[in-house]
Amino acid sequence: MSTTGITLHQHSLEQQQQNAHVVEELPELLAALSRAARTLAREIRRAALVGQLGLVGGSNPTGDAQKKLDILGNTTLMEALAETGLVAAVVSEELPEAMPVSSGSAARYVVCLDPLDGSSNTDINGPVGTIFGIRRCGAAGQSGTAADVLGSGSEQVASGYVMYGPGTVFVYTCGAGVNGFTWDDERGEFVLTHPDIRGPRQGHYDSANLGHYHEWHPHIQRFIDYLTQHDPLTHRPYSLHYTGALVADVHRSLLEGELYFYPADAEHQQGKLRLLYECAPWPSSSSRRVAASAQARRGCSRSRLKPCTNACHRSSAALKMWRCMSHSRPTVVPHEEAHT
Ligand code: FBP
What we know:
This protein is of the alpha+beta class. The chain has helices at 8-18, 26-45, 68-84, 218-228, 246-256, 275-279, 288-297, 335-338; strands spanning 55-59, 65-67, 87-92, 99-100, 109-117, 128-136, 158-164, 168-173, 178-184, 189-194, 205-207, 239-240, 259-260. An 8-stranded mixed beta sheet has the order 4-3-5-6-7-8-9-10, sandwiched between helices. A 3-stranded parallel beta sheet has the order 12-11-13, covered by helices on one side. It has a two-stranded antiparallel sheet with strand order 1-2. A hairpin with a 4-residue loop joins strand 8 (168-173) and strand 9. The model is unreliable at 284-309 and 318-340 (pLDDT under 50).
């Protein structure tokens, strides 16, 4: 049964025409990301058949062992973005610094990427994803620098993710709601299947690697204890669902309501998730709250992160988590309460 729904490209053209704040290059940038996603989805499905599983032997700038699909993902996305001529630079989990891509007056954007999120799932046929955040360059015509991406998450012109699971889903926001599209093999298009996503007001899942429970701050341990106590009036206990892929867990949080968190632990003193391509891209429209709390904990003002040695791969102990990318308020434990 082929769907007759609106395609991702048509939708992005409409968003651009109907919303003055949406940049005119959005449809072309998303088209490049969706082309790369289509290629990656195919390569992930056939990876075991063509020797694309396993490690490459090196590690990325934050010390994670790199999978072959990490590298393939990075190359595929970089090539698709380069073809547009609109991207001055890319900040990627797999690259040490911001990588210049195109020069010239049309190259006005920097894209932050986690090319293959959840790469620990590749060899077990588990869900993986791609996360992206698009920002304007400081000055047209100059290659993007790290300084272009050190602003607040709310300065992104668009952001979202692709989830490679039983189906391939492309979800994005450009500040005018959140929409999800599913790949339709028959039409050869991403088709709108999840219009104007609004997470449920109340969820009952939590998602965290409880293996680190005893290393977490006592207040976080109390929060976990609170979630696991039996109290139907407050929808507790929450069910623990942890897939090993941030994208898959956040997709659930969007659709069914969930708390995902990755607090600081012995191995990850600042938490594990990297701010620019694993935190800021989520709910660019309503994550100001999340981004602000992450920055506040590190004593950085909201307006600008202080340039540091390798700002591209800065981590943030993501305690307060997003529940939905829609404009309804996420339910989070008040900062003060979490520290009493
Ligand atoms: P990468 O796979 O891109 O490095 O992302 C980090 C991540 O894999 C998240 O997707 C996931 O939620 C978390 O780390 C899993 O970490 P751990 O294995 O320590 O629980």
